[in-house]
Amino acid sequence: MVTLPVLPGRPGAAYFVLRTNHDPTRLIGVGSPRIGRIELHETVTANGVSRMMPLRDGTFAPDAPLAFEPGGRHAMLLEIDPSLRPGDRVPLTFTFDPAGPVTVEAPMRAAGDAGHAGH
Predict the structure, then answer these.
(1) Distance of CA 6 to the CA centre of its chain
(2) Selection from 92, 66, 65, 64 nearest residue 3 by Cα
(3) pLDDT tens, 90-102?
């Protein structure tokens, strides 16, 4: 699911769960022709303070899916095509090692839709 920003021109977010039936796989990155840049982040809490950091390890295995969800790991979407609206679908291409790329059509949602917390 892709969440559009509250204010136009601000970052949005994408949330998903990655699973594999094969040996451990590593997420290298995510791209889209409708989004200028996608950064993979995780929320880290130290001394009671939470902050975003680049994703340190995107490895997942058959017994350990990798979840990207509000308040944790997420894909930050920058330079979103301004013509995208809630209800649209946007292609996201996931790049993995050692597996090949996978493209999915993700639904666009407005910030706050379906009870999902903002980024």
Answers:
(1) 17
(2) 92
(3) 999 999 999 999 9
